[in-house]
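Sanity check. The docking grid for flavin-adenine dinucleotide depends on where the pocket ends up, so I'm generating a full predicted complex first rather than guessing from homology. Inputs follow.
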Amino acid sequence: MRYLILGCGPAGIAAAKTILKSDKSASVVIATEESGPPYLRPLLPDLITGEMDLSAIRDPQGEDLASRGIEVRHGKRAKKVDAANRRVAFADGSEEAYDSLLIATGGKPAIPPPLRKTPGSVFPFDSLEDAQRIREKAKGKGDAVVYGPGFLGIVASVAMRRVGLSVVWLQPDLPRIGYPISGELEASILDNVRNKGVVIRDGIDISEVVELDGGVIGIRTSAGDQLRCSMIVAATERLPSVEFLRGSGVNVGTGILVDDHLRTSASNIYAAGDCAELRDKAGGESRINFGWRSAVKQGQLAGENMAGGGKVFIGKQEDYFWMLFGSALADRTR
Ligand SMILES: Cc1cc2nc3c(=O)[nH]c(=O)nc-3n(C[C@H](O)[C@H](O)[C@H](O)COP(=O)(O)OP(=O)(O)OC[C@H]3O[C@@H](n4cnc5c(N)ncnc54)[C@H](O)[C@@H]3O)c2cc1C
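Predicted complex below; grid placement will be based on this.
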């Protein structure tokens, strides 16, 4: 069997290793748009602050792929899935065939229209390349505006303060995809963020961005006031990276719709991690389980099922939703 996995994040890596445990003669290929080795995305804030370097954030799970016989193809951005002919086309013009396909392409930050007009002033906060760009720019000091409604807004604001920039965090009233805190815990985390010197402006959106002379960025907010800064960090929610499935026949809602086995509407295509949209049996709601450890668990399960395991996804929200990576958010903001 030829297994093709799109995405070399925690879900893709976990699936590849699990498939090989169950199907010893499997041919497993991971195709990823990224150019370098896998890294620990939750540690990107530490790369920005300089508390960790590139070698410290490499994903140890990604180091033995070649020795296990898993082939990783870099610089391969999936552009189209032809489910009928079992092929994936990539942006570089190449194609890969598969018997069984896993989509583990995670999410990408949603950048709202007013921020798209001045791409040179806006720094998305999602990938290694993004973090390196933010770190370079932040070295010049200045004032940062962090924009985003949830978890990533918190970690981005704290990182920018640690670098020594003054920070205004605009927290728009937008839906949050992964936000595992509420009540007293949330209040105490937000207090930690404020105590670091971050100015939090709750429920405020960006209406317009203009580039002024001398690298200054002017922002008009939804409250009608003006802000000035040297960079805008877009720490917006990760929306599932699924645009290449258009026309494939695979059903997509916000994310890729999967059943209890993490199987999509096509019987030999599975999805796992931040790109998969699961139905919570208890609540009947669909949701995306943002989070590193959740992605690993889903990748393992999808891998087992692709190799014939027939395992059911554990549908309880707390099994996945709360499984954030590393030290608790309260400790990280202190
Ligand atoms: C700054 C930041 C901090 C975070 N901190 C935490 C934390 O503290 N705790 C926690 O649990 N989670 C955290 N997360 C979330 C966590 O990183 C994700 O939940 C997890 O990485 C999801 O894993 P995944 O395998 O589903 O997708 P990803 O890790 O996103 O991997 C998907 C891979 O697929 C690639 N890809 C995308 N589209 C294509 C395509 N068309 N073709 C080929 N390749 C493609 C991407 O480039 C990426 O490398 C954080 C995320 C960010 C951005």
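Relevant for the grid: The first strand starts at residue 2 and ends at 6.
Also worth noting: Residues 292-306 form the longest helix (15 residues).
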